[in-house]
Specification:
This protein has about 325 residues and is α/β, with parallel strands linked by helices. The protein has a domain of about 200 residues: Rossmann fold (3-Layer(aba) Sandwich). Helix content is about 55%, strand content about 10%. The chain contains 14 helices and six strands. The protein has a six-stranded parallel sheet with strand order 2-3-1-4-5-6, with helices on both faces. The longest helix is centred in the last third of the chain and has 22 residues.
Length: about 325
Amino acid sequence: MVERLVLHVGLLKSGTTFVQARLGANLDELERQGVLFPTPWSRQVRAVTDLASSGAGAKAWARLAADVRDHPGTVLLSMEFLAPIPEDRIRRVLADFPGARVEVVITVRDLGRVVPAMWQETLQNRRSWAWSEFQRAVRSESGTVGKRFWRQQDVGKVAKRWAKVLGPEQVTVITVPPSGAPPELLWERFCDVAGLAPATWAPAPRANESLGVASALLLGRLNAALGDDVDRSVYNKAVKKRLAKQVLAARKSDEPSIGFVVPDWLRKRSDARSADLAATGVRVVGDLAELVPRDVPGLDPDSVTAEQQLEAAVDALARLVQGSGKRR
């Protein structure tokens, strides 16, 4: 029977892809330490999505939970869709592992970096929100986008909800180091909290590359043109995976990144978020000062010209054609 279950629940855009890739690249070392990280990772995605949407009828989650229970030692799950699940789903998770010590790890990044990253995330998932529209939605905390943003990023509420069921002593928040910090620092913090012994860890393959500003706008315009006429599976394969994550991400060094000057309203909201987190009584690894939002250097999306977007489009088409020839 599983003795200890570590749930890395998010938040979105807080280094989760890096952590998941690093864990996946070190399965042998994890096994030597008696730790199971269920693979393929897509199985965790399906199980958590099933849990969040189906509750008591979640069959994919039930199958994963059965395998977790059978492991004699520690199991580590990492899936950011766990962060916003409601209290009844959290109680379902706890009930599925009787006798096991369930611990929750929450990674959180400063909102200065999160806002542009979350905007880009919406673009890679069929949305066509303009940059200014997205910021207004986040500020008002209304509408589908605004509500979803804070459901995913209000770390105080997320920590409080999990702590209410598990107890604050079972919840740890890790702050993501600021830009310029040693690249291994987040991983070291995660290993410490997850109870992983020091080891020679294999590097993670580079994944989830962000887009340059012109490419991001190009993707939004493409989404608007496609509308709902393309099947989700086709979109995910052709647009999200091939065009966005491979073709457009590969040209990031050829264009300015997304710049963001943090507005006063977001600084105030960030202060309130940190205060709410501190009031939960959960352990914080890192420093809440790392959550103070900082300006992100780059080009404001609203100042990108049509010519820059056209250049991105032509270059993307060229790369697609060249790539098609290589795969034959």
